[in-house]
Amino acid sequence: MFWRIGVACVVYARDPSGRPIGRETPMNRIHIAAGIAAASALALLAPAPAFAAPPIIDHWSEHIEHIEQVEHPGWCPDVPFDVLYTEDAHGTFRFVQHGDGNYYGASSIMSNFSWTNVETGKTYSATRHGADKDLLVTDNGDGTVTLEVQSTGPTTYYDDDGNRVLMDAGRATGTVVIDTNGTPSDPSDDEFVSFLPGELTGHFETPDRDFCADIMEFLG
Q1: Is 94 exposed, middle or buried (0-12, 13-18, 19+ CB in 10 A)?
Q2: pTM over 0.85, yes/no
Q3: 3-state class of 46 per DSSP?
């Protein structure tokens, strides 16, 4: 499965609270989970070729399942019960070389994800559908590239009874640095270096909330 880290970070990164971004805000995970759906790339050191390389197109799907406290040590330390995180996502990823020789990624995404109190079975869930893409790719000259990325589309949250409790809808941006491992045309071996959140434009209800307090409210 191919997927660019820059695109992926917008969807799967988390802020220190533990709330995923992109799905909920533009970037949130205790430790940015770049890998999420995978890969990135970008920027050739050589001049752009006369003909662009053929695009990579991948219809991807991914299942994630783990105990938050095990996967992310220090996650919501005041939550006294184990929390199971699950996610099923799919979409279509495109990886295309532009005229300047740089490679840009973009993906549609449909994601269903949830947090479950393993002791009681209560669930706090969400759905997201939208698109993630690289807006600008810059070669840093040291084997890394900087990606200006954006995530668009609504994310809706539900309590255990299926009632809608929160919604984020609009555009989220960020800056991602990746190491291409010397293969800018191959997004499968990219490595995440850093992420800096950008701006939120639209209607976002979760960024100013305490995610861990939400976990206690909806799962406690």
Answers
A1: middle
A2: no
A3: coil
